[in-house]
């Protein structure tokens, strides 16, 4: 979590049980970050984790300190698992060691701000006493409290009572203290101390610079031409091997996919690269055995995919799971075929049908479906890495998604050298001298000419802030998403250079980018605006002007097609920034831009819900450039965080929140079979310099099942939700966080600590709906109504199959009409699409 927004970071990091090496490294990291002020919580070490307390307890006496706390009088016992606290998330303090004790610390506060002291209180009644007393002081506030022994109390059933008291700070430094008012051995026990103040909301998105590559001028000659090229490529259905599948096919609806038929995947894919855990294959087999089938239409009653008797509360004996499914709502791509070659001038590639073991109807292939839900492309430019698992590297290598992990990636650069040629043009008598002697010699006369020789030089490039370019080159030749199995980018380039851009699709005359290029027929671009012409206009000549063929017979342009594809689509997507929402207007001074209920939802988002901890900054997302190495923070890509149990290193902005069992999809925890781990934390531990803090050898890393935190902007329109698409509306999403992680027990090793539930919202539908209403105020009307820059050409979208004819599954198509800069009919939330369809 960001340095600016990490609630309880210092408090929760647990040193107990770590090796000495890791404990020392942890202590160093904490020393470096301990001076940071958390705007949400003024108390430090409110979980009593520091000072190396030892199980079952350690006694501290007057004048001694433990972590940020000081014993001012008597003595106290810091308990380590002697008294059970939920999920072992906190140690606790018995304020009576052998005598009544007083502990305190000085908090950094802001004068005039209201803080709320919250803590859990119980007692140590082993000594038989019935009532304990406590005095709490915080600034001007004093509270004298007492607690009676509750029925059924034991050290493993503490009957914790949550206490909450506000005060107004009067200075920059405020003392907080807890004093036992009960004499003798055994007294009040406290845990999980906080002093929270309402967190300020993020600024408007326009305050965050769009993070494009700093060396773009080395590649792009004309940004406008590059944007036009990128928009054409992104929406062009001719890209797919079937001549019907574009990038936009899976990113048409507010940048996401809202199709409702033939969108199910069995689930439990393991990772992008298959199964890499022992449990994974069995989970996949179970998922397949319970897969409801292909070409099904989704219905509202299919959701959510994990259901409890009462969706507001955690699973328990009284609140059992009543339904669970591993299936995933993905995006339908192409049918399964083996690539045989392109046919120049034809958008459909040659291929041999290979019957897919899952995606077939009685032996006839249907469109395959991806194993994860499609995230939005709108505002995606702000991320440090792309894809759910972060495999689209921040450095674009011009070839594939893996950036600097692939040391052999090369693009071709046209270089010139001067070749000298000397010729004899005749002979001539020349008088020469040796000493005193002169003689005549008959010598040749020569001339030298110089010829400029062009060649193609393979060069390595790494373009920073290039995650969207890295992402863009992944799907086009993926055998599920867009291509018959085995096609290469060189072949795709040769095909696209033989086709008129968008030839099968209408382009609106007022399209904000392509309108002036529209062909007179109304379909596609003018013939003079060919893809070759657009490349020449957009890119510097050294990246396309070579005249020699490669060793395998491709032109310079064909060989460098992934370079153009990635950078041009990145340039187009960099314009898809939705920074004109009601929230943005509210942050710029329009107090009426949010309804009163949305304002209540915003406060829940920032405070009780702690949603801001992961969906941070103006982007309302995690793992963004601004948070890892930009204007909001420069903490780097790796953090040390308390997990649900213990502490571990992890990749900033990637979290395991317990939507599904970890081994079903380990996400950023996966390793590429050739290039190694996707995780920054694992890379750093293996010796790669990825920046940020060190990860000692043998240190615990918690990245399995951790997915990139998506943006919440336009979330109203980008359902279904989560990486598995397992919820249909925002209320179901809120209910998930209110009850806490669905797979807490199975995922405990990698689980994010902030998904333990929101007690204040359990059973509280009005506040849940207020949170939903706030999130709807993150919708940019330009996105909803498809106004510039979110206007687009026409696209024909396959939405399942209508039947089988002559061994071919017939597409059930619907047409999304072209719109210009003024937009058109609004997009609807996914839940409405389930009811009415598109």
The H-level CATH homologous superfamily of the domain at 579-782, spelled out, is Cytochrome c-like domain
Strand content: 15-25%
Mean pLDDT: 93
Number of separate strands? 30
**Which stretches of 5+ consecutive residues score pLDDT under 50?**
1-39
Strand order of the largest sheet: 1-4-5-12-7-10
Question: Which fold name corresponds to the CATH topology of the domain at 579-782?
Answer: Cytochrome Bc1 Complex, Chain D, domain 2
- The radius of gyration computed from the alpha-carbon positions, rounded to a whole number of angstroms, is 32 Å
| CATH first level of the domain at 579-782 | Mainly Alpha
Major sheet attributes: 6 strands, antiparallel
Structural class: alpha+beta
Distance between the ends: 38 Å
CATH architecture call of the domain at 579-782: Orthogonal Bundle
* Shape assignment: globular
Question: What is the number of helical segments per DSSP (H or I, 4+ residues)?
Answer: 17
User: Helical percent range?
Assistant: 10-25%
